[in-house]
Amino acid sequence: MNSIRRQLTRELLGVALGLLGGGLLALYLAARHAALEQFDEALQSKALAVSTMILPSPGGVTVLFNDRFMRGFDTRTPRDYFELWDADDRTLARSETLAQGDLPRLGGTLENPRWWNLVLRSGRPGRAVGFSFRPRDPAAPKHLEPELQLVVATNRTALDATLRTLLSLAAGCAILLAGATVWLVPRVLRRGLQPLQTLGDHATRIDATSLSMRFPADALPVELQPIADRLNNLLARLEASFERERRFSADLAHELRTPLAELRSLAECALKWPDTRDHTTDRETLAIAQQMEKMVAHMLALTRGEHGQLATRAEPVALDELVHHVWRGRAERAAARDLRVRITTEPVPVKADSALLGSIVANLCDNAVDYTPPGGEIRVGVEPVDGRAVLSITNTTADVEPADVLRLFDRFWRKEKARSGGTHLGLGLPIARTFAAAMGWTLTAASDAPQQLTFVLTSPRASA
Fold first, then answer.
1. Is residue 388 in a domain?
2. Is residue 11 one of the residues assigned to a domain?
3. Residue 440 backbone zone (phi > 0: left; psi -120 to 50: alpha; other: beta)
4. Do residues 312 and 351 lie in contact, with contact meaning Cβ atoms separated by under 8 Å?
């Protein structure tokens, strides 16, 4: 299983140990170079000091060297060595520490001497410097300045011990720092990733019964706050969806309880008093069955619409003609209730599913006829607005309050008076909005004035 913590631990340990090793190696190499450079400078100073003690003379050169002034060259404490040659490879002088031995004759120039490591006569490691030069004496003629070759060597045991100490210190520091890094990095990561762990633990406690919980975004680091905000928004939507489903289940059970009780009552009466059964019982049973069938059909249509499973077919439809056609079927009912009706339409061809659009218009017209108080007014208008087709239906109301407008499209929602009538299921407006959304239309409701309700159906711009 992939783990962010393990992956970060491995990568951080690799990077930290690599940087640590590289830094200590660079530090050791820099210290080694500095120690070696200082050692070479001291050796070169000895060689220059020896070269200043060699003076030209008519018979060759004169060596004024005295080991009492340079203790490293005497036999009591043999540490330093030198040897001097002329241009014919003849040895002109050597230190007493060499005895009968010779130094390798390798060399450069005074400005660019040559350095090398060697094994001394004593068997110990040493380092030598060699260069050619011409001895100078202001009192002697210039033609008496022969070219000589000088090699000076010294014991480098102390230098090697210092370098070994530096290497030991670097290795010890590397081991200690590596151990500290291996110990610290997982703990620092664990502490740094604790907010993620807290977020995960909080998420594991959320289930269908605790959707009201929210992630403490303010207490989280800045990097996790957007995630917590998105999760809180998701939980809010889930809570609203679950609440809507619970309310729907309760409403559905409530709506089905009454017709089922009526069916049961009719069936019990028919079984208990079969001789008194007449056609009225059968008609009531059929009406109840039709009402339940209508409810199931509406619920199936809502479910298909909410899941995007409604098949729509766009075809040219004259919206103004459709409105007049639908209203003709409701005109008699409106007249029976003494409703004042005013229909104002303009020719507005649209592309829509004629069946769905007809169902929407029928639902809106039925709603207006059935809920407008006797003697009230209904206004229907069809017009193009900004390249869109707009159908508006306004009717007077007796008991619809502004707060009720927000619930008009909820499933099974009806005012108490409408519940007692039994002709409406509270599904017409939700189905109308679902059908409108399936075609890309919008259906809204508003209470623009006291005791007045307006529904507005608007087509998409490309549909007009």
1. yes
2. no
3. left
4. no
**Which amino acid type is present at position 329?**
G
- Residue-wise pLDDT tens digits, 42-89: 999 989 988 888 887 776 777 777 655 566 777 677 788 889 998 888
Do 447 and 336 fall within a single domain?
yes
Domain count, the chain: 3
Q: Residue 63 is encoded by which pair of tokens?
A: 């060596």
B/e letters for 254-288, b = 16+ CB within 10 Å, e = fewer, are ebeeebeeeeeebeeeeeeeeeeeeeeeeeeeeeb
Q: Is the dihedral of CA 328, 331, 333, 339 positive or negative?
A: positive
pTM: 0.52
Q: Based on the domain organization, do 150 and 52 belong to the same domain? A: yes
pLDDT band (50, 70, 90) for residue 421: very low
Eight-class DSSP state of 170: H
- Cα angle at 36 between 34 and 38, to 5 degrees? 65
Task: Name beta bridge partners: 442.
Answer: 458
* Domain CATH code at residue 232: 1.10.287.130
The DSSP symbol for 74 reads: S
Q: Collapsing DSSP states into helix, strand and coil, what is residue 430? A: helix
pLDDT number for residue 354: 83
